Amino acid sequence: MDNQNLKVLLPREDIAATVRKLAADITRDYHDKNPILIGILKGAFVFMADLVRCLNFPLELEFVRLASYSGTQSTGQLKMLQTLPCPVEGRHVLVIEDIIDTGLTTAFIMGYVKTKSPASLKLCALLDKPARRCAPVDIDYLGFTVPDRFVVGYGLDYDQKYRNLPDVCVLEAKP
Ligand code: 5GP
């Protein structure tokens, strides 16, 4: 860690304002739908916690956890470590992601939920990094578009560290 610098990309105040804006859009669309919000662990936990505290209508929360098959990172070879514990058939589902990069994780989870026959299925992501996209993804509610840099903080990690940073920061090697 000593040979790395953190540079704030998205300050906490900007994140909070954007979360409030996303919550207003989601409230407009879901206030009478009793939706199930599905957070993708671990990265989305901070975003999800802030977002749902801005939503003042009936909803349910679930979490799923994914992992790449060992040795095949970024190939889209994903498996569920924690599957959905509740039925979503006939329910309005909103998937909550931290960051969309290649799109492979999101495409996998959206495909998985779709097989459970929800009444509707949409996607909310805090960050979009479109530069490396290889699986097409429609983001219904988006916080920020970010450049092709490795970011940490606000739930996002490097080697399980930095999730607790309140700002989104770029992790850079020291010169
Ligand atoms: P994708 O499948 O879209 O390539 O990647 C999705 C997952 O990769 C994210 O949920 C996140 O866990 C991880 N990821 C992608 N880009 C970044 C990044 O810049 N920083 C961190 N910390 N994780 C990232």
Task: Tag the structure with descriptive keywords.
175 residues; alpha/beta; 22% helix; 33% strand
**What is the number of strand segments?**
9
Poorly predicted runs of 5 or more residues: none
Tell me the β content.
25-35%
The percent of residues in helical segments reads 10-25%
What is the spatial order of strands in the main beta sheet? Answer: 4-3-2-5-6-7
CATH class membership? Alpha Beta
CATH fold group:
Rossmann fold
What does this structure look like?
The chain has about 180 residues and is of the alpha/beta class. It has a single domain, classed as Rossmann fold. Helix content is about 20%, strand content about 35%. The strands form 2 sheets. It has a 6-stranded mixed beta sheet with strand order 4-3-2-5-6-7, with helices on both faces. It has a 3-stranded antiparallel beta sheet with strand order 1-9-8. β2, α2 and β3 form a beta-alpha-beta unit. The radius of gyration is 16 Å and the shape is globular. The site of guanosine-5'-monophosphate (5GP) has 17 residues, from β5, α3 and β8.
Please give a quick description of this structure.
This protein has helices spanning 12-30, 45-52, 104-114; strands at residues 4-10, 36-41, 60-68, 78-82, 92-100, 120-128, 141-145, 151-152, 168-173. The protein has a single domain (13-68, 76-148), classed as Rossmann fold (3-Layer(aba) Sandwich).
Question: Can you lay out the helices and strands and say which pair or pack?
Answer:
Blueprint: E1 4-10, H1 12-30, E2 36-41, H2 45-52, E3 60-68, E4 78-82, E5 92-100, H3 104-114, E6 120-128, E7 141-145, E8 151-152, E9 168-173
Parallel strand pairs: 2-3, 2-5, 5-6, 6-7
Antiparallel strand pairs: 1-9, 3-4, 8-9
Helix pairs in contact: 1-2
The structure holds guanosine-5'-monophosphate (5GP).
Residues 43, 98-106, 129, 150-152, 156-158 line the site of guanosine-5'-monophosphate (5GP).
